[in-house]
Amino acid sequence: MQVNVKLLVLQIEGVFTIFALALFIPAGSIAWLAGWIFLTLFFGFALSIFIWLYRYNPGLLRERMRLGTSDQQAWDWHARACQASRPGGPHIIERAARLCSL
How far apart are CA 5 and CA 82, in angstroms? Predict the structure, then answer.
């Protein structure tokens, strides 16, 4: 089964747009150099990882492109949603797991 490159490009473009809006709307200008440097570095590294996965492990790339699976635990879904909605790191997963176990 092949990787859906069109879907991958759409996902990258969507995330780039969300990140750009989250950075530049509060800044009040798109002329913010630090924001452009961040976007360039972040998506440059992400793109290099996607290219590497496409060449050497397309199965893992397909798995990472999926938003969720039917056998995914509820706490895992909430943890992923928390991470996607704001930066924070691994402690978010622990908090979400605790919230879902209440």
Answer: 26
Contact 43, 11 (CB under 8 A): no
Query: In sequence order, what DSSP letters do the residues of the chain get, joined into one string?
Result: ----HHHHHHHHHHHHHHHHHHHHHHHT-S--HHHHHHHHHHHHHHHHHHHHHHHH-HHHHHHHH-S--TT--HHHHHHHHHHHHS---THHHHHHHHHHT-
Task: Give which of 56, 22, 26 is closest to 39, Cα–Cα.
Answer: 22
pTM of the model: 0.62
Q: What is the pLDDT of residue 66?
A: 77
